[in-house]
Amino acid sequence: MKVLEINGGKRLYGETTVQGAKNSALPCLAASLLGKRCVIHNCPNLTDTYACIKIIKMLGAKAELTGNTAIIESAEELKSYKIDDALMKEMRSSIIFLGAILSRCKQAEISYPGGCCIGARPIDMHLDAFRQMGVEIEESCGRIVCNIPKLKSCRIRLPFPSVGATENIMLLGAASNCEITIENAAKEPEIIDLLSFINSMGGNINMDDCGNIYIKGVEELGGTEYRIIPDRIATLTYLCGIAMCGGYGRLNSARYEHIKIPIEILEDMGCALEKGESYIEIKAPGRLKSPGLISTRPYPMFPTDAQAVFMAMATRSKGRSCFIENIFENRFRHIDELKKMRALVSARGNLAYVKGRRKLKNADMEAKDLRGGAALTVAALSAKGLSTVSGVEYIDRGYENIERSFGDLGAEIIRREM
Ligand code: EPZ
């Protein structure tokens, strides 16, 4: 079992470079199946990106991730239109390959992606959208069998701006000869990154100011060389680590414009931030003010993926705060672990109440999901003495060497195999 050992209670001082965005890399890797040779720079080394590479190879394309550069050579003919169950379960986001496989093979067979600990994460919006596009879908015994007699142009209105459903529609529509409009599409920076990636391959996808996406399917897509945007959630994680411990840090390759609302909250909590073209510097006082009310919403509102790490900060800030998790139904699993540090947090349904206290107690904790694990790491950095966070495999799904990044910022944190 992998464990992070953290000797906390010190102010942080240092500089680090933020990894490429996990939630851009995954859909862009899937999109590379649609074209010719794709070179993707700034691709983070994560268990989720490794899983993507495995799926791409299993489908019959060539794929290598060397350092932070992925090279995908899609095959003339994919050797399979199925993703085996083990791989579907290995990564929640395997569902975004469905659109790409259908686009290439006109058929696909997959099992349902596992729900995960943060929620059931159904795919009804993905499948409803595909049916509107002319895909015939049979669902039985946990398997989804799709085939496309003929794709058709249509206007799809998503009931919720689902990131994955938006991506899947883009992946299926990009190299079709149809015109697809997505109303109420997701607008996250990762969606824009995928749109730009596909257009760099010769695609024709645009988004208007109201969050509608217009896909003009092209005959075929070519190759590209592309650089993924920085990971906005990793950026916030490292900023919150410095904010919670006090000190100063500089994050290179960080994009302030992707995290405006959380940055405003950090400033309201007492941090001074300098936002450069591609860096963010933060100076943090000894103790923060409470963040007040944080309610997670689709972009550009407060991101659900930063809820846990902001809650960790709130446990040591002055005053009370309230968190409302509106996106996923089970995203408070870090609370019981934070309580081991004597954090004063109580939760009911999708509401959590925090009463900040001056000090947290070092403790042995267990990560139950990716972003919760990062939050426990941040909390442990601020507590004097030795703490441990087990379940590091969750953290490794989304953070490329979290101990190195926090080490750059002056933290005493090492990884152990227990
Ligand atoms: C993406 O997940 C991200 N993952 C998540 O990041 C992120 O939290 C989420 O978007 C919201 O921003 C990747 O990009 C790989 P959704 P996704 O479809 O696409 C419901 C992380 O920590 N829904 O926008 O699965 C769903 O259950 C991860 O990096 C349906 O009901 O999110 C959820 O409640 C966690 N039916 C809400 O919509 C559907 O068909 C948002 O889901 C699809 C979604």
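^ EPZ complex. The chain has a mean pLDDT of 96. The chain has 14 helices and 23 strands.
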